[in-house]
Amino acid sequence: MDMRADVLIVGAGMVGSALALALRHSGLNILLLDGGPLSVKPFDGDAPFEPRVSALSAASQRILERLGAWEGIEKRRVSPYSDMQVWDGSGTGQIHFSAASVHAQALGHIVENRVVQDGLLERLHDSDIGLLPNARLEQLRRSGDEWLLTLADGRRLRAPLVVAADGANSAVRRLAGCQTREWDYLHHAIVTSVRCSAAHQATAWQRFTDEGPLAFLPLSRDGKQDWCSIVWSTTPEHAEQLMASDDAAFLKALERAFEGRLGAVLEADPRVCVPLRQRHAKRYVDEGLALIGDAAHTIHPLAGQGVNLGFLDAAVLAEVLVNACERGERLADEKVLSRYERRRMPHNLALMAAMEGFERLFQANPLPLRWLRNSGLKIVEKMPEAKALFVRQALGLTGDLPELAKP
Ligand SMILES: Cc1cc2nc3c(=O)[nH]c(=O)nc-3n(C[C@H](O)[C@H](O)[C@H](O)COP(=O)(O)OP(=O)(O)OC[C@H]3O[C@@H](n4cnc5c(N)ncnc54)[C@H](O)[C@@H]3O)c2cc1C
Q1: Helical H runs in 97-246?
Q2: Distance between CA 376 and CA 370 in Å, rounded?
Q3: Residue with CA nearest ligand 1 atom 20
Q4: Tell me, what DSSP letter sits at residue 294?
Q5: CA of residue 213 to ligand 1 center, whole Å
Q6: How far is CA 67 from CA 18, 23, 295, 319, 343, in A?
Q7: Nearest to residue 2, comparing CAs of 175, 131, 147, 124?
Q8: Relative to the CA of 137, which ligand 1 atom is closest?
Q9: List of residues 6+ apart from 398 with CB closer than 8 A
Q10: What is the C-alpha to C-alpha distance for residues 31 and 44, in angstroms, rounded to an integer?
Q11: Is the pLDDT of residue 130 over 70?
């Protein structure tokens, strides 16, 4: 017999898991499925850092706190950062943001994705949300007023509302025929963790090089400040070269590209290379369908915002669905789901456009543009109010926030 749910969430990554937890008291029958095992790994505090990390904003932290997941995340390993230094590698312009400028303790936390995921999964296993591990979606079609989903192992599921939280290459988005606008950044990102000879001072560092931005994000273990997670965005050819080079050559190249700001780069974990593509769904909703997280949008990691946007999507969609339930509305109704799209799409688009502009400005070689960005950084550096506004925004203290994210 086919399994049935009121809401079927495809993808139990950080964003899909957050949505399921946000709906745990709604009285709805929720089913969360994922192609992976959905098991929580025992945490070893001495283990190397995972290569994939996220800079979580204060708004994301509040969402995770209210979902009951933050405690488990914090207990494993989080690295708060209080400052951010950004500079132009081909000029002298630089800018410094600090949490102290708005009387906050931290600008955010660098957390390994696996740690966030496990903190959420732990709460999910304690809840009565239906979890379907090792369930890879293969087919999806309308069947009357419902969706009929077929898994790789032949199992079938039905639901009036399907939420796509299955990441950048979303199968739901493809199978449902949702259109996207996408373009290549002509960048690959090399991601790994490195140990430096100088302490990172709980600061996120970003240098704009001619090939792309290079970020050193502070990681902390037992109070030590010598490890950083790096995201090095560069041309595909350069990335290929760096991936092929031996450890000693890679460390030297990295130290040079970072102008040795944290002294010598002494060792690095294995490198991972990710091609970067910007993708935005033209619509986030259709009858009985909603797209959230990377299934709806992927953005350049220079913004450090991908999963932060995803958590806000999840919190807003949960709020819209719970309110509609209370009013006795049909959740699959496109009119109901459009309330989610109206609140999230302009915000996501604005951020993506700003990042695109930023990225192009820093990629530009003509002298007037180089002058503009160099002087721009210097001018903004001398404008404390403008910088505080930026910090408040980064902390998620402004804008149309869902209840789960409100200070
Ligand atoms: C180099 C790099 C650095 C980044 N740094 C940051 C940062 O500092 N801050 C930040 O906010 N964001 C950052 N991001 C973005 C962030 O990692 C993503 O936005 C986030 O992981 C998206 O989460 P998600 O849950 O939407 O998707 P995913 O994490 O991709 O999860 C999708 C889930 O769906 C499951 N799935 C997929 N297909 C199927 C299927 N057919 N059937 C069943 N299940 C399926 C997968 O198993 C997975 O569990 C970065 C990204 C990159 C590439």
Answers
A1: 113-126, 171-175, 236-244
A2: 10
A3: 307
A4: G
A5: 21
A6: 7, 10, 22, 13, 21
A7: 147
A8: 42
A9: 392
A10: 30
A11: yes
* Nearest atom, ligand 1, residue 294 CA: 26
Residue 373 scores a pLDDT above 70? no
pLDDT at 160: 98
> Residue 375's pLDDT is what?
65
Residue 362 pLDDT level (bands cut at 50, 70, 90) = low
Which residue in 287, 368, 295, 302 sits closest to 334, CA to CA? 287
- Cβ atoms of 111 and 73 within 8 Å: the answer is yes
Which atom of ligand 1 sits closest to the CA of residue 60? 11
Question: Relative to the CA of 298, which ligand 1 atom is closest?
Answer: 19
**Distance between CA atoms of residues 178 and 322, nearest Å:** 25
Strand order in the sheet with 146-151: 3-4, 156-159, 146-151, 137-143
Query: Residue 230 has which token pair?
Result: 């790096």
DSSP-assigned beta bridge partners for residue 188: 234, 275
- 328 Cα–ligand 1 center, Å: 33
**pLDDT tens track for 289-342:** 999 999 999 988 877 788 999 999 999 999 999 999 999 999 999 999 999 999
Tokens of 321: 């669905």
CA 335 from centroid of its chain's CA atoms: 28
**Cα 93 to ligand 1 centroid, rounded to whole Å:** 33
For residue 10 the two structure tokens come to 């495809």
Mutate to test the pocket of ligand 1, among 8, 33, 54, 117 (most ligand atoms within 8 A of CB): 54
* pTM of the predicted structure, to 2 decimals: 0.94
Beta bridge partners of 336: none
> DSSP secondary-structure letter at 33?
E
